[in-house]
Amino acid sequence: MQAVKINDLSKRYKKSAFTLQIDNLRIESGSIFGLLGPNGAGKTSLLKLLMDFIRPDTGSIEILGHNSSDREKLQTQISYMSENKNLYPDMTVKNMLDYAASIVPAWDNDKALELRNIFPLDLKKRISTLSYGEKTQLYAILTFARSAELFILDEPTRGLDPLMQEQMLKLIKEKSWQGKTIIFSSHQLGEIEQNADSLAMLRNGKIILEGNLDDLKSELFVLKLEKSENTNILPSFLNIVARYYHNEKLIVLCKGGMEARPRLRSDFDYFHPENVNLKDIFFMLMENGGEEK
Amino acid sequence: MIWVKVDFHSGEPVYKQIVQSLKGDIISGKLSNNEAIPSIRELARDLNINPNTVARAYRELESEGYIYTRPGVGNFIKQSDEKTMETKALEMLGNELIEIINTARSYKLPRKKFAEFVMQTIDNVYGGDE
């Protein structure tokens, strides 16, 4: 079952001349899906479209088998954490939690108590006096103390110290251990690499890479060549995704590692294919204007 | 208890790291026949990693005959007969060995010299053992 199905989606922002365009995106149920990209790439827009806060110009979004605009059916099934951790400034922490318990669909009070132990906030403090980190912790309780199927989180660890970041990521993994689907955006590669099983990289409103992270690591590899070497002799069977000049070297990112690497080993043993991690992939596709998919 | 050292930032797919580590433990006998191993969820929690990654590792181990599942009961180690285990052990060593041989080749070491060296080193390490 797919938690999210996007087809031919486009959303144009006239003021900023920015267009988000996604032809095809599938997110599997039960996965932890990371949305990566620089600021302004369209991550928040995409999440807002999933939440039906904004409507697309063209295309369709299906969530958990329903149209994304079917809020009645989806309300109890999706939990959302916004980028701005906005809460009612005059309420105390306790007020907020009690209020949430009364209006949030499928509120899980036991879970809320558990989370209050992990994030020990002073119940009497007014929200306006909380630090950004504390607001995020409160928001985490509101987001995770629910029995939702899908969690959509916009930069959940931003502004948190390392210990709290770990706690947040632990909560995400716990939901995954329970079989829930989590989509979270981040511009921290390490975080995505350690927690997500699938991801999409956004740049200027387009997806330039997506898929299962382990698959991407198997399929993609780099060849490093001296600039002075005759680079026209790259074997024709190589599926080149991007080229990058760094110091005196030409670095070539290739796809199709499963077939190409054994072939290189047997017939072209002066080429030494190397593994790539997420950072390598990200910089090659982002920095130097790699070819977009 | 199963422990796998996972490196998220190497280019090696994480599920493969788990598979290789468990294969090694099984072939070396560290995990014995029919021994129960943690459920996908439990192992994901122990290692603090994504459960889908563990699930994929278990699927591969099962399809290659290293573990089996009893629905509703759990996951267990499958030790094959000696001959099969030997084949599996050689399979595991295969890639690393090719790397080393390629390095020797790139050093322009003559075949005979290298083979002699290998035998000598085996004698040193194995000592009197079979």
Overview of the molecule:
The complex is a heterodimer of chains A (293) and B (130). Chain A contains ten helices and 13 strands. By secondary structure, chain A is an alpha/beta fold. Chain A folds into two domains: 2-204, Rossmann fold; 215-290, Alpha-Beta Plaits (2-Layer Sandwich), CATH 3.30.70. In chain A, helix 4 (109-118) runs antiparallel to helix 5 and helix 5 runs parallel beside helix 6. The two termini of chain A are 25 Å apart. By secondary structure, chain B is mainly alpha-helical. Helix content of chain B is 58%, strand content 8%. Chain B is built from five helices and three strands; from the N terminus they run H-E-H-H-E-E-H-H. A three-stranded antiparallel sheet of chain B has the order 1-3-2. In chain B, a hairpin with a 3-residue loop joins strand 2 and strand 3.
Oligomeric state = heterodimer
Uncertain parts of chain A: 289-293
Radius of gyration of chain B (CA) equals: 18 Å
How large is the share of residues in beta strands of chain A? 25-35%
Largest contact between chains: A-B, 27 and 20 residues
Major sheet of chain B: 3 strands, antiparallel
Number of β-strand runs of chain A: 13
CATH superfamily of the largest domain in chain B: Winged helix-like DNA-binding domain superfamily/Winged helix DNA-binding domain
Strand order of the largest sheet of chain B: 1-3-2
Uncertain spans of chain B: none
Entry summary:
Chain A has 293 residues and is of the alpha/beta class.
